[in-house]
Design goal:
2 copies of one chain form a homodimer. By secondary structure, the first copy, chain A, is of the alpha/beta class. Helices cover 37% and strands 16% of the residues of chain A. The first copy, chain A, contains 8 helices and 10 strands. In chain A, helix 1 (21-39) packs antiparallel against helix 4 and helix 6 (150-157) crosses helix 7 (168-181). The radius of gyration of chain A is 23 Å and the shape is globular. Chain A binds a DNA duplex (24 and 24 nucleotides) through residues 12, 20-23, 46-48, 57-60, 62-63, 65-66, 70, 72-78, 235.
DNA sequence: TAGATTGTTAATCGATTAACAATC
DNA sequence: TAGATTGTTAATCGATTAACAATC
């Protein structure tokens, strides 16, 4: 997450487009909760209702919403449609963002079809792959196009978001091409740390990392008192021959 | 993330199996970086080297590693293999965790094939779906089985991790079944907030939320000074007829 | 010994939460 | 007016970071 902005020193001047990252990450959750309430014909909701629907506590929700403005009514609650629109506008999904997906393997294929992706606010304008065997294949109502056409597509369709679903190997190169072509937001599914220049935002979705975090907690359940673990080892003395993990964790 | 633990009050008694969540979330990243270094034949690395490979700063990396113990050598750095094993053990991927995937649509299908999933430490023991048309289908060397067999499979294979790749609708019910069957960690790809009892850990991967977070920042790039936005609206007065977002954001 | 680098301390920053005055 | 609920304040908690003493 890289942000090139002019921040003068001094007390944090809130209001100057300063919504905390943690709050930004929850706005889409609130948006979804509001949509669900709206679909159920609910016109008004209290912070408590909304918080329950979003899976957070109400204090946090009210604090989060307070960064956007005063959209509620004391003693009453929030108008669902009104708040939904305000949040959608704040996030920026009242307009449509053009997206390209690069790497049409299993995952890219799945994302191309994924309806949740078709969430209002985003439009997949191209599926790209460098493999000639894939180019031309139809997926839904789209056709896989040659990665070589990237620059042209980004310019024509004013693409600002790129999704990388290639293997780890080519991911950095793909990323560089995307950035050079003018893409300024990247969602990375490849299991590598990508580096991007300032001004380009990058987010990462990583399957095996999520599983490993679960494993960590899982380990601490089964064992409980049974595993005091980390048996206060003496400093290693050049010893490198340790029980092997088995060849290579990580993808 | 629910943790049922006995925490006495007083100063934070570190060492009592208390690795901060933020650190836990980075351990898999370090593990992957170490594996990459190891694959490149690098035997020793400084915190600076490692931090670069992991995409963090070296102070944070050293602080994180300090929660695990003293695995480095002052003046020298870290033995790559040794540290890799220690982190793998701490995370719990020196053993194998049995995983079931529920919901074999596009995404479940992709995950079933996803090699990154096959990361050492995890073993997919079943692909489950309730749709009779899918049951029996072969995916790689596995066959889709009936969701009705869940309980049996969880018991037989001692499954502790469940991955939910169903649509939003059935996700909570699937989750309840998983929990009732004895699964205590869940990775949820369905765009809903799942509720689970204490003692069950849940993590969420949400495509459209990631895209929306990117959109938020993207919006603040293009516009910059051009969008003072949030035009200090008067409190709404029951007005519900606002420009529609278009039907429903969120899946 | 001199140089390098860890492990830890302490300062700072950001996020969460409870509580309540403002106000519908 | 009495009851409900927001928006905000202030306290607390956790995470990040710089700096450096310890030590190889």
């Amino acid at each position: 997450m890289t942000r090139a902005s002019s921040r003068r020193p001094g007390p944090p001047t809130r209001t100057e487009r300063g919504i905390p990252e943690a709050t930004v990450a929850r706005l889409p959750v609130y948006l979804r909760a509001l949509t669900a309430l709206s679909d159920n014909g609910i016109a008004t909701a209290s912070s408590e209702d909304l918080a329950t629907a979003a899976g957070v506590n109400s204090a946090k929700l009210r604090k989060d919403l307070s960064y956007l403005g005063s959209y509620g009514t004391r003693g009453v609650g929030y108008d669902v449609e009104y708040l939904r629109y305000q949040i959608a506008r704040e996030i920026g999904v009242t307009q449509d963002w053009a997206v390209v997906i690069v790497g049409i393997g299993n995952l890219g294929h799945a994302l191309a079809n994924y309806s949740g992706f078709g969430t209002r606010g985003f439009r997949i304008v191209a599926l790209l792959d460098a493999d000639p065997d894939l180019v031309g294949e139809r997926i839904g109502d789209m056709e896989v196009r040659d990665f070589a056409q990237l620059e042209e597509i980004v310019e024509t369709d004013r693409v600002s978001i790129g999704v990388i679903t290639t293997p780890a190997g080519p991911a950095q190169e793909v990323c560089d091409r995307l950035v050079a072509a003018g893409v300024t937001s990247i969602l990375n599914f490849a299991p590598v740390v990508l580096s991007v220049p300032d001004g380009v935002d990058i987010r990462k979705v990583d399957l095996s990392i999520e599983l490993q975090i679960l494993a960590y907690h899982e380990q601490r359940k089964s064992g409980e008192a049974a595993l005091p673990q980390v048996p206060e080892l003496p400093a290693m003395n050049g010893l490198t021959d340790l029980p092997s993990v088995g060849g290579g964790v990580g993808a």
